[in-house]
Fold these 2 entries.
Entry 1:
Amino acid sequence: MTRINRDVIEEVRTSANIVDVVGSYVALRKRGKNYLGLCPFHSEKEPSFTVSNEKQIFHCFGCGASGSVFDFVMRTRNLTFAEAVSELANRFGIPLPQEKETAQAKKIREMAERLRQINGMAAEYFSRNLLRSSGEIARKYLQTRGIGEETIQDFQLGYAPKSWDGLKRFLTREKVDLKVAVQAGMLVPKSGGDSYDRFRNRLMFPIKDMRGRTVGFGGRALDDSMPKYLNSPETLIFHKGRTLYGLATAREACRRNNETLVVEGYFDLLALYNRSIHQVVAPLGTALTLHHVRMLSRLAPQAVLVFDGDDAGMQAALRSLEFFLREKLPVRFLPLPEGMDPDDFINKEGKEPFMQLLSEAKPLMEVFLEQSLSNYDGSVEGRLKVVRAVTPMLRLVDSPVAQEGYLRVLDRRLGVSEEALRAELALTSIRRPSAAASHKREQKPGLPEWEEGIIRILVNYPQWIPTLEENSALESFQNKDWAEVGRLLVKYYQEGGKLNLSGLLMDVQNEQIRNLISSWSLETSPWREEDAHARLREYFAGISSSRRRLQDDLKRLKEKIQAAERSRDEKLMAELLAELQAKKAALLAGEVNDEANLSKGEMV
């Protein structure tokens, strides 16, 4: 899909009333100025999901989900931003003139469409073959695996006959360019410009993208052919490291259950689905990639790895931990009995024992720590080996509370003090505050308190947004995310003379900050207007005072440097020049957060 013009996006946003759109998914009831309902993104009994008709945003005070009408459609329908805009445009009858497409982009798009079309035709061909007499071998095999008719239909399972040119003849009758069929991976080229069917005498698994379009295939041999499982080759539309089997059938179930189960193979997935466990996907014979985990994060707020109950399954799960930590997607590990895979377990033990194991699944980080500690031999070298093995993962844990807990486990099991572990791991974000600073309220890492305070006030009282520029405050912001929010506040206020909150949330990239802003905008302000204004003036006064002190320090340093130069004290000159550079860097970076001057403006 080509890029959509920004003006058209704005037209769609203003036309697609968020109450109408959300109301078609969630039962809403009016309470005061806003609407309340049960959150569609997590299970709850008391409504905490709030929709503002005035501000055209939603926010769940339970799970923190928030955003504009586009964010809501993206989450509920598992769509990209462009797809969400297109869907809403179609719903509200808005034409989508798009930015001019380059010749190269058009060529690629048209080829992708042809490849998907050929894959879709092949899926229908294989599906029909399964029902014919030639497909009896595949039907009997599915019966032995306990796969029911509904599951066969839902996944459009099929059969590729033994013939070397069955699919080729079908595509020829359908007037498909066989060269393009080769590019789609359905045919294999041979010398002389001829080709033959890639899949023969195999049970066929169509692989579909999030929108249900067939992009590739997996085929399971029904004789002694090798490999036992054969996938389509990489094509313009099919990449194993970017595709998960079962996406199209799982997405709604993942949203309802607030979790995605990840298994290793086709039949593991089908066996669970056959027992009405539908929130399940599988990689295509490869290890989980970072892109896979990003896809999982769009499906549900957490994942559970259900891998084979052997050392290989455990190691495969542990290798993926880094990706989950980087994407901040909570992940648990379901340990199956030794030698069993999900298909074996659920067919032998049944659904209830499986669901019991699922409820007992442990966070993968805890499993990783246990595995790392299991080889500890009590020696100093062994102790250091364990600490250095877990260091990379611990540094990726974004919760100070969780880091503290894991450090205590290491302290208890290794006999190493937390202080020594912190020194080894350099986990500065969880060091205890010094005695001198213990009276101060702990701040969130990376979110300077005075900057957060200014933005919070301006969200509640947007009429004061112009004061950001009047006081040159943004020049002194330390955190790039808050500075960007400040610039967006100014931009939207200048464009419309008011705060366009829905537009603002569309542009804020940091999800944590976006959720904070939406919750502030729907809360009752913690300050009366006059108190908020006074607090804002205190923040600006502190910034101005700190900036002046820095400038005065620079002036005094330059005078000292001139004196040292006259007296030819090179050592003193070097020290003063280093201090001068540090002060200049502080001034340029806006590091003016002087605790003494800004303490009056601390957040409540």
Note: Residues 433 and 442 are 9 Å apart (CA to CA).
Entry 2:
Amino acid sequence: MLADIEYFIENYVYIENKEGASNDDRSILFKMFPEQKRVLREIEENKNNAIIKARQLGITWLVIAIGVHGCMKLKQFTVAFASQTEDYMKEAINRVEYILQRFPKWLMMEYNKNTVGFNSLFLYEKKADEIIIYHPSTKEGVREESRFKGIISTEKAGRSITGDLIILDEWAYHESAEEVFGAIYPIINRPTSGKFIGLSTNKRGSYFEEIIRGCIDGENTAFNLIFLNAFADPRRDAKWYENTKAILKNTWRQEYPMTIEDALSAGNLTAFPEFSASIHVCEPFDIPSHWIKWAAVDNGLNDPFCWFKAAVDEDGTTYVYYEYSRDKQKDPQVYYSDQAKTFMESCTIEITDEVKEEIDSYDLGYEINGKYYAKEKLQYVIFGLDAFSKDTAKGTGKSLLDRYKEGGGFDYPAVRAVTDRKLGKDTIHEYLKPYYSEHLERQTAKLQIFDTCKFLIKHIPMLTVESDNPTVIAGNSNIDNTADALKYLLIGSPRNNARPVEKEESPLKTYKEKMYKNSKKTRGRMKKGIIN
């Protein structure tokens, strides 16, 4: 019960106090702040907890204390504390020992040859990567054990463990965090028991951030989201905060956030700080038929793929109006041929009977189940370079583009992407650059995104730059597929070919003019004796 664990922590758990001015003050009872009590209550009430927080709020001490309480309350209770390195793991084990050493001697002592016979006490034994807590002996002389295990985050982490509580500290900074979570979560994934606590300050582009954003958006209901701002420690005041901001000019929002939006900021690592939904996102509308359209693809199977379509108007403004991708965590893989099939299905346009009668004789349309369709006019589709590479390892001699064509019916002109990373980032900046429109009477930009393109809108503000090379976007296989497809799309834009028209032309008139021009060329060649 909550009252039991709160009493246990505040009356038995000692923690380090770095503000202590004397030796006696360097170790104090854990008298919780109101916000720490709130976190304790929410953890007790929820199975899966994701905690995003400011720095130095004592939450790591709190979750370790929760683990110690579980080990003492229940026999055969196992805590798995996952750290990104061996040093961090050892630090967690040391904190557990710090707490146990300061329990009253009538309650807890270290296991050794002098205490092994103290049957009425809890005993603890520290090992390299775990602390074993021995419960008082039963009438039969049996000591049941509980364990607080430290594990290092790897893709095989915890596979041999059955646990009761997982603690993932500084979750955002674990390498291969998604794979680690996938390996470790089954330790406690039982219908009626088991608890998970993941806590961290944020790191832009991390799996942890994806979990947090999913909670905010309502897309991820599996986690209870807990946010702690910089003033969760009531000893902090406005003067302290202003000094902190002055010293940490680029990182104060992330390290000491006031709001969850601050916590999700990357400071000077943000790739596209100029992005704003109010400037760059618009409601869908029917694309005028004379606007030039094209598409781009970032090929992918294990990593998410991404297909975009765009159109450019007379003024050179580009509208991304179609998006096809998948969520790596939620959605199954889609084979290349099925991707192409879905994309081509999106390129079919239903036409009226009247237009159909005019077009039919020129083989511009087709009929499916009594409905008439035409194919959307795209200038070309830009593909990542690996789409053109022939398979030599398996001996098929076929490329991804062949699979798109043969299995998915893809039949648009295919263009190789320009993959220069610096040029790609610079190009996106150029399109995102805000300017004031006299016509619209507000800020706008040369890139507009339909609000139906959910992945693109979600991922742009999450993109970061490489810390040692801010001219390029940092790699992140969960979200950079959208960035790559956007780079291909904008670098390969045909906007310089856009021309204003006075009125829209019907498909039939356009086709007749094309046929007339071709016939004139043929007659010209016949007069010159080129055609016999």
Note: Confidence is low (pLDDT under 50) at residues 358-364, 497-504, 525-532.
